[in-house]
Amino acid sequence: MPPKRRSKRPGLLSSTRPPTVKSKHATLSAKATRTLIRSHHQLLKARTQAEQAGDDALVSSINAQIEANGGLESYQIASKIGQSGERGGDSSKTLVDWIKPQLNEWKTTLPKLRVLEVGALSTKNVCSRTPSLEVSRIDLNSQEPGILKQDFMERPLPSTEEEKFHIISLSLVLNYVPDPVGRGDMLKRCVQFLTSNCPISLPPTLFLVLPVACVDNSRYLTEERLLAILASLGFHLVETRRTSKLIYQLWNYTGVSSPQSFKKEMLNPGHKRNNFAIIMGES
Hints:
With about 280 residues, this protein is of the alpha/beta class. The chain has seven helices and seven strands, in the order ααααββββαβααββ.
């Protein structure tokens, strides 16, 4: 008697998907991701220097290199991979965890807290899924609907308190700015977008995420200098944590500033260190 033929179990739907559905970028290793991001930053810095020197030919050459490497889109893909669950996760989870005690005060009868997420890569991160938060997302190169294509430095200044935000998120944004003066200007500009008119007991808040190397391995910036810069603008550090790659900080805006000038000066000598800096005048 011939053996019974076993009925074939239906396959999973995922197994029928064409290979093209999977992004080739998802296979980027952690090292390749870091290399792509680092190369993009270096090219942006070189282009800024060429622009300041008035070398149009060099600017064109660097622009060609940036495009050959995939441009801003490839940088964003690498950043998304770097923020995936396998590579450290969504940074906005840390923000929400830190302000959770205040968010617990929120009730559905109250207005939502307005969040400005600069350099947004997703509309599905933790802060976007938090009921008490209303998130406005902007980025230089919007990757999906719900993210406005806009440069924060060119965003019109708010004319009313209702156009301001209770929270501003700069997650891996300040390090993308190619020159030290521009970084200082970005931090100063944040103050103009914050409001203290909050329905719960949350002060105006700045969430800042930087690569650890920016503060630990720079010739021109230390964590102490970063604290001094933000304190001069009226910010008070309330939370901080580190991973092997990133430093997360939560700053409350006090409204009490003491304008100072911070120049590019040697703070941490060493030939293997980087040149990340923040320059700020008193104005």
